[in-house]
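Translate structure to sequence.
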């Protein structure tokens, strides 16, 4: 390029001078004769006197010399580039760790490309779609048996078909190239990375090359030296290993459910009910199939079967056997067979966590790197147990002796610990803390176990129940053998002398062997950032519309959903019944139902088989309450309720019931029960602006549809004693 520019700089002034002289002579001629030159004279234009042609000859010579020089320069430049390229290829194969025989092979091919004509490109084999190859590998045929160790390329299988990603043309070599199946490890020429020009381009023709695959034959007797092997493995083997590691992960799932809890299972069952051929994939971080959580803090602790911890089967309050799992393993199909099953099915991928969502491509990425595409997706990730900050900061020894109760493994761990230690302290006075306290307290006498429950309120479930009912509940828990510590605010937790020391804000010090933190749930919203989902700043969880949809093709159900209640405003509920109903509705909407969420979910808690309650709506002890109670009978217990409904998970029957108008009692009710009396059974109404927004049914069962209708109506009631008659609490 620089030579061409120098020649042009020398010739250009002469050409411009000649052209200028011609133009000046033409102008003079026009002025002299007073007319334009004829066309025939233009061909005889001269820069000299009239009749002369010497200047025109010089002009033609200069232009011709310029063209000739340009052609010579282009030819020499192309030839020089080709020589430099051949030298570069030879230098590459002569680098350290390359065998001398490979260098000779390259030299012979380069020499052959100069001496022998290039044949027409021949397509020897159609490219096969395989994992991406980042190195183009070319094999050569030797005319004589190989007597020196050859370089061994790292290949995943003895038989290799190398897909060349650059354009390669077969060259003629002294011996004919025969395409054969290689059954022994093949000795190959050094691999050339894509960042460099491929070696095979040395023999390219000047015409546009055709992509081909070169397969060479190497005599089987060729010795292969292990010491001469290339230190870096071929990148082509990496996709093969990755595919093997993810062989149990389907690439696509029409319905993808993230989370393996109650909401996901309810959604799967709903999807299959509306679309019998649907293929549903549940991805759960746990190693268990979908199961119900309420028995973990209730019935399982009261089982007489020593194997209940392993089998996770329990007796309900009515004595019937039941498993904690929704369905046996035979109900599900294998994830690898999900796409092959004729009529679809439900598959569960356990031990995997979704860590990233690509909502534009409709894909998710798992913790092991696998990717799954979907058409419709449900997020039902639930939540993780909260912990006290003072415990988080206390160190490893304290954390090893702390249980955050949520999963099956937590139940098994705590059940084992209760048999090994002398004291357990439960921090928290809500539903979970009170249930675990009663369960462990009933075992305390047989195991010689001290059970302590502490909370900052003035009584058990003090944030839910009115003060008089909370105090009565506290006495009930004490009778189970639990040491209750009220108004307890934990200031510090430390480990000293093989004991945990819990120091309270008022200076009290409690020693214990193990701590159970039951202080609430934090919704899992880790996918919000990658999926671009909105998280509610007040209640937590993903904000969804009335159809439980967070955005196109994505729904949310269960504990992680923050939904809008048309009667009670925006809410987030952490109970079994809400998981069942919201999961079921989300599944219907994923199949095109487009139904709004109108349901008022309920929850229940049992303090053993004799005392239990059900609640609906907003139950907050800070609201004004009105309680109507009556004397309980033998049938007013959780045990009797399960005998009547046939299930210990009462929401399964309650949510299907429809509220009807019941005839109010005609007999005069007895006077209201005073605070010091035994609260056998009753109804507690929670008011906001004189409208009932929440109801607790205390030892009153199978009446939830009536409570749901009262809240839905949203009317003001002058006398709630008359409303309480709808629940027939005064019947014997």
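Result:
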């Amino acid at each position: 390029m620089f030579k061409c520019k120098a020649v042009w700089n020398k010739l250009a002034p002469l050409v411009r001078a000649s052209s200028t002289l011609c133009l000046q002579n033409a102008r003079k001629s026009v002025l002299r004769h007073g007319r334009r030159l004829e066309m025939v004279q233009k061909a005889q234009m001269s820069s000299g006197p009239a009749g002369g042609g010497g200047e025109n000859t010089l002009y033609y010579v200069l232009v011709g010399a310029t063209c000739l020089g340009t052609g010579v320069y282009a030819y020499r430049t192309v030839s020089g580039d080709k020589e430099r390229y051949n030298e570069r290829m030879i230098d590459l194969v002569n680098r350290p760790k390359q065998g001398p025989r490979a260098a000779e092979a390259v030299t012979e091919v380069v020499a052959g490309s100069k001496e022998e004509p290039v044949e027409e490109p021949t397509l020897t084999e159609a490219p096969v779609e395989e994992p991406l190859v980042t190195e183009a590998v070319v094999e050569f045929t030797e005319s004589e048996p190989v007597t020196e160790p050859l370089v061994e390329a790292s290949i995943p299988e003895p038989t290799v078909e190398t897909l060349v990603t650059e354009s390669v043309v077969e060259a003629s070599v002294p011996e004919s190239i025969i395409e054969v199946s290689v059954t022994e490890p093949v000795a190959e020429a050094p691999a050339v990375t894509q960042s460099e020009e491929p070696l095979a381009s040395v023999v390219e023709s000047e015409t546009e090359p055709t992509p081909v695959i070169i397969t060479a034959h190497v005599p089987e007797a060729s010795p292969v030296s292990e010491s001469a092997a290339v230190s870096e493995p071929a990148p082509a083997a990496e996709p093969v290993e990755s595919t093997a590691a993810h062989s149990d992960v389907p690439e696509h799932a029409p319905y993808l459910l993230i989370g393996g809890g109650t909401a996901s299972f309810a959604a799967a069952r709903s999807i299959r009910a509306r679309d019998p051929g649907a293929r549903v994939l549940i991805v759960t971080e746990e190693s268990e199939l979908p199961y119900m959580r309420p028995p973990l803090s209730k019935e399982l602790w009261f089982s007489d079967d020593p194997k209940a911890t392993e089998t996770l089967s329990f007796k309900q309050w009515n004595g019937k056997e039941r498993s904690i799992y929704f369905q046996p393993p035979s109900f599900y199909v294998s994830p690898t067979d999900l796409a092959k099953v004729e009529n679809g099915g439900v598959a569960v991928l356990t031990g995997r966590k979704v860590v990233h969502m690509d909502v534009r491509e409709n894909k998710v990425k798992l913790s092991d790197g696998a990717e799954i595409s979907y058409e419709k997706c449900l997020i039902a990730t639930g939540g993780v147990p909260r912990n006290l900050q003072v415990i988080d900061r206390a160190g490893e020894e304290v954390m090893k002796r702390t249980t955050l109760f949520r999963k099956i493994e937590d139940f098994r761990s705590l059940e084992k610990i209760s048999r090994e230690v002398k004291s357990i302290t439960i921090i928290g006075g809500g539903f979970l803390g009170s249930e675990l306290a009663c369960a462990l307290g009933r075992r305390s006498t047989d195991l010689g176990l001290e059970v302590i429950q502490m909370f900052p309120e003035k009584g058990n479930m003090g944030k839910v129940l009115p003060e008089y009912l909370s105090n009565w509940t506290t006495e009930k828990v004490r009778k189970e053998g639990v040491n209750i510590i009220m108004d307890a605010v934990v200031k510090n937790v430390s480990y000293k002398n093989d004991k945990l020391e819990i120091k309270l804000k008022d200076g009290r010090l409690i020693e214990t062997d193990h701590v159970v933190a039951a202080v609430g749930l934090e919704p899992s919203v880790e996918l919000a950032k990658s999926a671009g989902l909105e998280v509610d700043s007040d209640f937590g969880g993903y904000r969804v519309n009335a159809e439980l949809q967070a955005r196109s093709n994505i729904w949310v159900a269960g504990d992680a959903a923050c939904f809008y209640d048309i009667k009670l405003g925006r809410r987030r509920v952490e109970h079994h019944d809400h998981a069942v109903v919201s999961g079921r509705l989300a599944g219907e909407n994923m199949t095109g139902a487009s139904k709004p969420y109108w349901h008022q979910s309920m929850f229940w808690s049992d303090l053993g088989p004799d005392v239990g309650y059900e609640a609906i709506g907003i139950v907050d002890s800070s609201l004004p309450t009105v309680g109507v109670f009556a004397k309980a009978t033998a049938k007013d217990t959780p045990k009797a309720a399960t005998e009547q409904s046939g299930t210990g998970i009462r929401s399964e029957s309650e949510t299907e019931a429809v509220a009807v108008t019941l005839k109010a009692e005609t007999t005069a009710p007895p006077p209201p029960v005073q605070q010091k009396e035994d609260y056998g059974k009753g109804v507690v109404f929670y008011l906001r602006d004189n409208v009932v927004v929440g109801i607790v049914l205390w030892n009153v069962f199978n009446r939830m549809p009536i409570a749901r209708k009262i809240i839905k109506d949203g009317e003001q009631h002058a006398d709630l004693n008359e409303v309480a008659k709808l629940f027939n609490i005064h019947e014997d």
